[in-house]
Structure formats: C-alpha cells, structure tokens
Amino acid sequence: MEPTAEPVLPGPATPPGRPEAEERPGAEERGAGREADEVQDVQEGSLRDATLQEGSLSSGSFQEGSLRDETFQAAFLKEGELTVRGRIEEASNAVLFCTVTHEGRTVDCVYKPVAGERPLWDFPDGNLAQRETAAYEISRTTGWGLIPATVLREGPYGPGMVQRWIEVPDGEEIPPLLALVEADEPGPGWKAVGFAETGQGRPALLVHADDARLRRLAVLDAVINNGDRKGGHLLPGPGGRLFAIDHGVTFHTDDKLRTLLWGWAGEPLPEEAVTVLERLRAELAAGRPLAARLAELLTAAETAALRARVAALLASGRHPEPGGDWPPIPWPPV
Fold first, then answer.
1. Which pLDDT score is estimated for 23?
2. How far is CA 150 from CA 18, 76, 186, 296, 325, in A?
C-alpha cells in the first residue's frame, strides 16, 4: 500500500483530547457519557435484523427517533451534518473531534479520515476505518454494547470512521480496572496478567479487575483478533458502563491477539459468552445481514478467519491463551 498524504488538518482541541464544554455549542445536549447509559442494548438471546443495519433518519420522523437507541445513533452519525471542532494531537493517526447535527439536535463524535491514516506493513488490505466499523458491527451483534456507535461515511477530509464520543463521567466513583501491585499473587477481585518493572526498577505484578464487563471484552477481542488492547482504550461511562475504543488493528488472518486482559486465559467461557458466540456464528453465515455488511468492510480471507475464530472458541469452550509467535501484551500497555 502506498502512503497517503495526510490532509491539512485543524489545530488541536482544547485541552487536547478533552475539548472544554463551553467551547462546544449545545454541549448540554451532547456527550456520549451523558447519554451513553441510555443506549438500548440488544436483548440477550434475540437479535433483530434491524440492529444490523445503519437505518435512516429519513425512514421516519426524526422527532420520534431516540438517541437511546443504538440503531438510531448510527443513523444520526451517518446522515447528520459533520463539523470539525479540533484535532486530538496525541493520537498516532489523524483523529478529529467533531459534532454531528440534525434538526436542532447535536452529538459529539470522533472522525478519523482514511487520508490521515499511516499505512501498516502487516495490514496491507483495507484501512483502519473499515476495521473499526467492522468491530462495531460485531460488538452490536453481541448485544454487549461495548463499542460506541460507529459508521463509515464521507466527511470534510474524505471518507472515514465516525464514532460517538465517550465523555468520562464527572462526580462518579470509578473503580480501577488495571493496577501494578508489589506482590507475587493478585488480591481478591483481581486477575494476574504478568510481571513488569516499575519506574524505580522494582518488579511489580500487572493485574486487572475480575470484572464481568472486562471478561466480555476479552471475548470480543478474541473474536476480532485485537492486536492492541491497551488500558487507555477502556473508557468508563455513567451508571457503571464500560466502553472500548481504537479497533483499527483487528481482523488479521494470523493470530495477533495482544491484550492486557489475559487474566482468564485457559479458563472456561461463561455460559453467557457461549450463548453470544453461538448467536454470532449464526449471524456470520452466508446470506445473513451481518455477513453481508462485513463483506463491505473486510476481505473474504479476513471474514473466513473471523468465522474460524468463533468456531474455535466454541469448540474449546475456553478463553484463548497467549501464543508463542506474537508478543501477547501491547507496548506501551496504556
């Protein structure tokens, strides 16, 4: 793949990555965190075909649509007016903070134009935006609501991924999900990942919470073959919700799973996860809406590898374990 010239993009948001509310028109009506707890998840054990389609704001009265509904969120992001407000500079690729507006309603979002992506030697096919969108389609099918609403659309700098902005809630006590402890074993409520060195050169044990939300995410990452699950990609939402972002390095045909969530490696999958994987296998069958959507986003080989991973998880009935051909933990881990 030939490198693509990065477009001339606007300056950073203020502060970088967290634009001030007073600089965002209509901020009281927006913010993924303030409305994310209202997202309507797919009912466990059922899956409407409509949840696999982006929908259309023109298909019904906009006023009747609800930003609590994930399908409506995706349609809103795809069809509303996209306005760039600033650039998030600390990202390795072009990431723009934007708003999407339609008929007086506005939400915050992130826009990652394809033109601002840096080519990856080991991901020669497709682009980050397509893989991020495909990861969302898988997440939506599980019904776990772990990835914010994400669409592929045209924007001011060409086609790219647009994703609902997640506002970390203020004033809520957020229990830690990752920690370094100076001990040989994790304490109660924690799972061990491995040993690391602290800034003082002392060894410490890297642990993550024994948390049902993280366990769901560990299963999702195994399905999409996530090569970059870092701690900074985990965003808390209001009401105890957890969101995961940055899924551009996914769906490779080779095993590239790199994650901080190895605490359940080799353990039996929860019954809930098995049910979700069975449903996912059915929806990946040829002719199903999910399979048709993924055909627009992934190569045939990537989709075949995806089906094989789901089948392997169901056959083993266990969380995967690290392989020997690929570093199992991303660097830097946060």
1. 35
2. 19, 10, 36, 15, 32
For 327, the 3-state DSSP assignment is coil
Question: Cβ(281)–Cβ(314) under 8 Å?
Answer: yes
pTM of the model: 0.81
Summarised one tens digit per residue, pLDDT across range 135-193 is 999 999 999 999 999 999 999 999 999 999 988 878 778 889 999 888 889 999 999 99
| CA angle (256, 249, 327) in 5-degree steps | 35
The pair of structure tokens assigned to 70 is 């994930």
Whether the CB-CB separation of 294 and 303 falls below 8 Å is answered with yes
Angle, to 10 degrees, between the axis of helix 212-224 and the axis of helix 271-283?
30
Position 31 scores a pLDDT of 32
Nearest to 290 by CA among 127, 142, 123: 142
Residues of the chain with pLDDT under 50: 1-56, 58-64
Q: Residue written as tokens 């979700």? A: 276
The stretches of the chain forming alpha helices (DSSP H) are 32-36, 70-79, 128-142, 212-224, 271-283, 289-295, 300-316
Antiparallel, parallel or unpaired: β 105-113 and 158-164 = antiparallel
For residue 27, what pLDDT is reported?
Answer: 30
Q: What pLDDT score was predicted for residue 69?
A: 79
Paired with 159 in beta bridges are: 154
- Exposure of 317 in the CB half-sphere (CA atoms within 13 A): 2
Q: What distance in Å separates the CA atoms of residue 313 and residue 42, rounded to the nearest whole number? A: 22
CA pseudo-torsion sign 34, 87, 148, 241: negative
DSSP string over 187-198:
-TTEEEEEEEE-
Rama region for 135: left / alpha / beta (φ>0; ψ in -120 to 50; rest): alpha
Contact criterion met (CB below 8 Å) for 127 and 92: no
Q: What are phi and psi of 105, to 5 degrees?
A: -110, 140
